[in-house]
Amino acid sequence: QVQLVESGGGLVQSGGSLRLSCAASASGRSFRIDVMSWYRQTPGKGRELVATIASADITNYADSVKGRFTISRDNAKNTVYLQMNSLKPEDTAVYYCFSARGATWGQGTQVIVSS
Predict the structure, then answer these.
(1) pLDDT higher than threshold 90 for residue 67
(2) 57 Rama sector, left if φ>0, alpha if ψ -120 to 50, beta otherwise
(3) Residue 109, C-beta contacts closer than 8 angstroms, at least 6 positions apart
(4) If DSSP codes are grouped into helix, strand and coil, which group holds residue 98?
(5) List of E strands, the chain
(6) Could you give the 3-state DSSP secondary structure of residue 63?
(7) Rounded CA gap, 93 and 25, in Å?
(8) pLDDT digits over 89-109, tens only?
(9) pLDDT tens column, 14-34
(10) Which residues pair with 67 in a beta bridge?
């Protein structure tokens, strides 16, 4: 079973930056991250895909975050990151990490951007 643990959320002013981390592991067996994504969700809305990183570091971003967010990975640490710059109040959401391998979600980390 794959486990994902997110960290790095918090409260930041508009224009500020945060870096989210998602550490992956699997109990009882070796595990390597494959296609990993970050989603976000606000109350009353479904989860929105923010960014994806695949093997060979191919990345894809939602139009709303292009040029501001960067997804990256450290395969040695089985960790995926989301660097968020120039944050806006509309980026406020719970951010979730998703591993395609195992179809597993993290528990989410809250990001609040104040105006």
Answers:
(1) yes
(2) left
(3) 6, 7, 8, 9, 20, 94, 95
(4) strand
(5) 2-7, 10-13, 18-26, 36-41, 48-53, 59-61, 69-74, 79-84, 93-99, 104-105, 109-114
(6) coil
(7) 25
(8) 999 999 999 999 889 999 999
(9) 999 999 999 998 887 777 889
(10) none
